[in-house]
Design a protein that fits this description.
Length: about 90
């Protein structure tokens, strides 16, 4: 049995989403701006558009983009590229 590896952009986005939600201030802002609920997020974890929206949220506020990129061990440009790939 062969398993398909997760898409790198999806992995980056999921890591960024987790880091976003573990910071209380950032999580509150994310939920407020997106209108998502915790259940809504859980239900949409496999949706590329939701993952891209999370990365777009971070892009819209550079300090958050930088902080989350550092938290997950990536460069901000990697998060931006992942968003672009998820939107295509």
């Amino acid at each position: 049995m062969t398993l398909t590896p997760p898409n790198d952009s999806e992995t980056v986005a999921l890591s960024a989403l987790a880091a976003t939600l573990t910071d209380e201030r950032r999580a509150e802002r994310f939920l407020s701006i997106t209108g998502l609920s915790p259940d809504g997020i859980r239900n949409a974890l496999g949706d590329r558009h939701t993952l891209a929206a999370c990365l777009a949220f971070l892009e819209s506020h550079e300090p958050d983009l930088i902080a989350v990129a550092e938290a997950i061990g990536e460069k901000p440009a990697t998060l931006i590229a992942a968003r672009a790939e998820l939107e295509s």
